[in-house]
## 1
Amino acid sequence: MSYVEFLTEFGPRLVDGTITTAQQTILAAAVAILIAVAAGLMRLSHNRLIYGAATVYIEIFRGTSLLVQLYWIFFVLPLFGLTLDKFTAGFMAVGMNLGAYGAELVRGGILSVPKGQWEAALALNMSPAKRMIRIIFPQAILNMLPPWGNLLIELLKGTALVALISVTDLMFEAKQINGSTFLSAQVFGTALIIYYLMARCLITPFMRWLERIMARKLGRI
Amino acid sequence: MKTLTKDYPLQLSGDDSPIVRFQNVTKRYGELVVLDALDLDVAEGEMVTIIGPSGSGKTTVLRMLMALEKIDDGVIYVNGEPMTHMEKNGALVRASKKHLRQQRTNIGMCFQHFNLFPHMTALENCIEAPIQVLGLSKKEACQRAEELLDMVGMLEKCHEHPARLSGGQKQRVAIARSLAMRPKVMLFDEVTSALDPEVIGEVTQVIRKLVAKHNLTMLMVTHQMGFAKEISDRVCFFFDGKIEEQGSSSQLFDNPQKERTQQFLSAVLEAG
């Protein structure tokens, strides 16, 4: 079977899988960003309880395996009465895991805003919430965009694990096709290329575009 | 902190009460005493300049008055009311955040490094706090900001981001931004120290204008001795967290009494 024949026969399934992978990536990214902002801000709190809660979360999700977390959310949580369908469990696990890494990026980005900006906002009598939302966060975003680009690529690759709880993503389809045809080189080679192209041609340019937009807002271009 | 009952009045009253009073104000960073039981009164409309060697506590005075940091002892009064403290059951206790925010409305501050918000244009810098803090409408805030930007000679560049402005231009916008909050007391913390020599004049010119046209109380920390001498009603020479000597600018510059003042002034003047 030539590679063209292979693609003609199995291409549609790989495309379906790729769409699922893209959906998982987008939803997981949304979860990761929400968690990262929340936990990152909590890590800046002077309240020990709030700071402690975020620290425990980050330590647990950063310090243990994503695969184990995925199995926990899908197989163990139902024992405690919380059942998630496999699609939801998949992106929640990936998002919660990468969100823990993202929290430190958010914290670092906020702390990288010069002290003078905080003081100027204070001298203008802005409330802590307005100061964060209007002055500090917009500047922090620009500082944290490059590492977030890294993290989102990591997240895309992390979604391959959801195949292990039978979410029909790209990796799941590839494994199924391999199981029935044993065309390992073709199928896994194609999956590899698709993952790479998603990262290189979608995520990276998107992040560059965001960086340009934010830099323009800061008047740096 | 313990409540303060004795020695500190709950309010300053009387026609001659100062707009700013530091009473026994002490600030420490660990072991280091930056302000040592400072007493300082500033009358309404007065222009007071603070000079002295680095590390003498000059900038700290302004930072305490802006409530950027907490003091360790003593009380600061603004506009007759205690700012660092508030009254509770007939005694002074440390001010709540709410009280501090309310008291901060009286004070405006300009910084050595301008600290303009880089993601906003000059105009947006000047309307941000009036809209967000004072609750002005955008139209009112813009009108007020444009008047002030015009006064500092920056109206033409009001749609530029700070990154496209020179140091002198940035500092003039920063002055307009502070004034837009209508403070009673303005603090200038070495506002010309980060500027190239040829643009210092545009900033000092704005401050001259403020002194001439507005009945604004001002405290200024500066290394520009010529400017200080020309513009100040009173000059305070700081040394080791204390006022070593103070007086009218002619008194202090032309006829300093204390040895440390003489040494400092001759060293500064020698350096040009």
Note: Chain B has nine helices and twelve strands.
## 2
Amino acid sequence: MAKLYPENTSNFEQLKPRKETIRFLLDYSRALKVIPLKKISFEMSLN
Amino acid sequence: MVLKSNVMNTKSLSDAQLVSNYISGDENSLSVLINRHQARLYGFIFSKIQDRDATEDVFQDTFIKVINTLKRGKYNEQGKFLPWVMRISHNLVIDYFRKNKRMPKFKNKGDFDIFSVLSDESPNAENKIVESQIADHVRILLEELPEDQKVVIKMRIYQDMSFKEISENTNVSINTALGRMRYGLINLRKMIDNHNISLIN
């Protein structure tokens, strides 16, 4: 796998995702509930 | 003070510990993981895609996969969180390029003209007329050729016969049929040049 990342990406590392993207991910994570029940797991997105 | 101290403690935890805490229900651990690796991951994706909007999408999709996998309890790369996330984003970058190859992306710069990307490859009415005229001219010129050359060219071009079939139908060898075709085409070109006929569509 190391060969996949040989390029120097440091020039781009000052770039960051938008705040809204981070906010969306954190909200998505908080809303997502996975409830295991026997062999099945139920996923719910709580608004 | 206690809350601030907890945040400080969380920030000093290893990736593996943060992942473990997140799986146990600590949502703040995800925030720390994202903050810790966002620049490297975003830079990696942008270095491949070179488009801010698409990078944003791939970055988001990467963490959605991360969240889904962790919450479903399917994460099994203990201690290798970043390489795992990079691998997910790498696969999504490949998906992005595959998708773009099938459906090229066009940037809207305000003066966008739909007809600049929706070209009509079929010939227009004028081209159809010109093509028809060229075909007529070639037929007229063909009649000027010696009979043996004319027959071979007609069989090959208009009847789509193979040289084997032509040789059988004209009772000559394949090489002779090929020779007649060659000389027929040479003579056609000569006639076109001599009469300054333009057959270019």
Note: Chain B has a mean pLDDT of 84.
